[in-house]
Amino acid sequence: MEEIEIRLPRAGITVRGRRFGSPGGLPVLCLHGWLDNCASFTPMASRLDGFELVTIDLPGHGLSDPVPSPTCQYLDYVACVLELARVQGWQRLQLIGHSLGGALSALIAGAAPSLVERLVLIDAIGPLSASPEVGRESVGRYLSAYLADEPAPVYRTRSQALKARVQLADILLDTASLLLERDLREVPGGFSWRSDNRLRHPFTMTFTEEQVRAYLGAITAPVLFVEAERTALREDYYPGRLAAVPNLTKVRLAGGHHLHVENPDPVAEAVRGFLGN
């Protein structure tokens, strides 16, 4: 494993992360979930010998710089990932995305299908969607929170921050501990988060379901959809999304939404078999 940093001149930011394995063949780019960081892929990466895995902190997460856009929308992150591929000289790659990273990976594979050789989605398939009216309301909530600019909380001890992280996303203590090393920083009075404070605001839902399915239907890469037994995908539109992807294989594995961290062996086995083909 090595720590990496990649400058994105068009975005004007630097993203940081880790590389596992030796360069050779198609790179496997891993995109993590909301308020997580690249460390979430470390348990799985150690079980995927023979692949070159590049795991990045998405902009505004972990050690990466925030996106320059005030609104932090899905397509801001998509643009950064596509620029990263161009800067690295990748003509083709394989993508693994979890949660938010899975939403972004689906958009990338739909918007730039010639770039993605194979796609793994871990308990995620496309971004949150809403009707135009609900989308308008979500933008209003975000902008109100953005302009209010309330500071991130400060915790007196690391253990208090750890407890807050567990409660935020209903994750296991071990999972939160793994993420904390890149998430936490010392500040006057204790500890606070490194992540972009705007990520704590209500997420904007600017895609309609019809738009999301247009991206999913344009994916040409074979797709492995790894669903958690205790999945977070409970909205009524998800079965229709699975049907919209032209070449999708679904597996269901034990664990919660962060199953690749909590139960990495079967997830890694499924991913290894899929990418190995």
From TrEMBL:
Keywords: Hydrolase
Family matches, as Pfam families: Abhydrolase_1
UniProt GO MF annotations: hydrolase activity
UniProt keyword Hydrolase, yes or no: yes
The keyword Repressor belongs to this UniProt entry's keyword annotation: no
Residue ranges annotated for the AB hydrolase-1 domain, each copy included: 27-264
UniProt similarity note: Belongs to the AB hydrolase superfamily.
Protein name per its UniProtKB record: Alpha/beta hydrolase
Biological source species: Allokutzneria multivorans
